[in-house]
Amino acid sequence: MASIKKRGPYQYQALIRRKGYPHQNRTFETKREAQAWAAVVESEMVRGVFISRTSLDKITFGQAIQKYAKEVTTKKRGEMNELRRIKVLLKHPLALRSLASLSVRDFCIYRDERAQTVSPSTIQKDLALISHLFNIARKEWELPIHNFINDISKPKIPEGRSRRLLPEEEVYIIQACEDSKAEAMTTITKLAIETAMRRGEILTLQWIHVDLAKQTVFLPSTKNGTARKVPLSKKAVSVLASWPKSIDGRVFHQYSNVSSFQQPWSRVMKRAKKAYLADCLENKMVPSPTFLVDFKFHDLRHEATTRLAEKLPNILELASVTGHKTIQMLRRYYHPRAEETALKLG
């Protein structure tokens, strides 16, 4: 029978002595938690399935995260993004807790706290990271730990964006790109519209993988881990042909990463919006409240995919160009306008 001792204002120690097993003890903030833990451990001993978790007392959640970052994260393509996510986790109070003290409730609280400041998608990614950490700890580090993430509900991800680029918006954006002091903005934007390539794929493009004669671009490394060859329209070929080659072999050497591109893109959107409002004022027009509002660079991929679908009705052929692995994911990027579909119906 377990004994519960009060060790302080918020400290209750549960001690279990049972023949054939090493003594087990753990301290909790409440007596109820101590009793619940003792009941579980004693039940496992009775059923002969008890595994000593002493090793979990010696490792904090933060130490486990750091070990994961060093051994697992560094081998991933999305290393930098995941390291930023890990940096946030290490600042959370849970990082100071031992693995043995963690419970399902802790991660329910963590999930709800994050919901106050970040999107459901971000929370999903956080929980997926923690879940993988627990799986690695159990399978490869041989730690007797339970994957608590399997036992909690995940936030519902809202439906994907369906923002289309209006023809008039495209005119203002391209003009703003041409007026921008940031090099390559016009070329990058036009290429995104013509090819449906992801921002990262465009920014890391190498001239050695561009074949203008055959009208193709080879992407050896993509977000989903599968290489693919992207066909180029005549307009895309013209855009790349007019762009000067650099010594280091990168097509767009001006931008070292996605983050360095975000600020000039934001300035382009502000410039485009300012030009639109100026034209409305000059022509005594009432500005549209949605024109050039909530438009992101990634929306160009949605726009390009929808336009390509008009030229490539074969779904498998379209997916091979855009790089979507499933038809379900491809559908999230295809947004035909009802008016355009109505015209096809006659």
Structural domain tally: 3
Shape: elongated
Q: How many helical stretches?
A: 15
Residues in helices, as a percent range: 40-55%
Strands of the biggest beta sheet: in what spatial order? Answer: 1-2-3
Oligomer: single chain
Under CATH, the topology of the largest domain is which?
hpI Integrase, Chain A
Order of helices and strands: EEEHHHHHHHHHEEEHHHHHH
CATH class of the largest domain: Mainly Alpha
Overall SS class: mainly alpha
Distance between the termini: 80 Å
Number of E-state strands? 6
Overview of the structural elements:
The termini are far apart. Helix 3 packs antiparallel against helix 4 (79-90), helix 8 runs antiparallel to helix 10 (234-241) and helix 8 (185-195) crosses helix 12 (299-311). The strands form two sheets. This protein has a three-stranded antiparallel beta sheet with strand order 1-2-3, covered by helices on one side. The protein has a three-stranded antiparallel beta sheet with strand order 4-5-6. The model has no long low-confidence stretch (mean pLDDT 89). The radius of gyration is 27 Å and the shape is elongated. The chain folds into three domains: 3-52; 58-151, DNA polymerase, domain 1 (Orthogonal Bundle); 167-345, hpI Integrase, Chain A. It is built from 15 helices and six strands. Strand 1 and strand 2 (11-16) form a beta hairpin. By secondary structure, it is mainly alpha-helical.
